[in-house]
Structure to design on (142 residues):
């Protein structure tokens, strides 16, 4: 079996689920800082348990992932210092960047590795990432 589901991986998936739930609840309750921080801690611990501690460290410290890692950790810091909206935006950007490279997909086209079962979602995500890329490239050029 290529991917065996051990108890540690089940706990990791549960923690990721709790992390997403608490983050969603924190956003629904007007960006409650405590729930967002708790969701982040659960999510990070769940990812570490699911793919392993060394793989998690390599994921965030890989040279090609520095941009996403810094954005994610900056977002986590901003949530702790009471800037939850900006923090969530930074975290989302960082997650897309880091996890796209983990999947072997370019962040400018995250749907290239997916099949076309959800074409509307892929189109929307690709469109907004291309717009964000254009904005960032125009700022770097000037």
């Amino acid at each position: 079996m290529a991917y065996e589901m051990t108890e540690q991986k089940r706990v990791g998936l549960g923690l990721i689920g709790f992390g997403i739930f608490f983050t969603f609840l924190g956003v629904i309750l007007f960006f409650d800082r405590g729930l967002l921080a708790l969701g982040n801690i659960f999510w990070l611990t769940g990812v570490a348990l699911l793919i392993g501690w060394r793989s998690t460290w390599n994921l965030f410290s890989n040279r090609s992932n520095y941009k996403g890692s810094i954005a994610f950790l900056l977002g986590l810091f901003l949530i702790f210092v009471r800037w939850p909206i900006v923090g969530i935006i930074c975290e989302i950007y960082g997650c897309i960047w880091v996890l796209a490279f983990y999947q072997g997909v370019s962040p400018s086209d995250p749907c290239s590795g997916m099949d076309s079962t959800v074409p509307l979602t892929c189109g929307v995500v690709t469109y907004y990432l291309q717009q964000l890329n254009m904005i960032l490239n125009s700022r770097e050029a000037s």
Helices lie at 7-28, 33-51, 53-61, 66-80, 84-102, 119-141. Residues 111 and 123 are 8 Å apart (CA to CA).
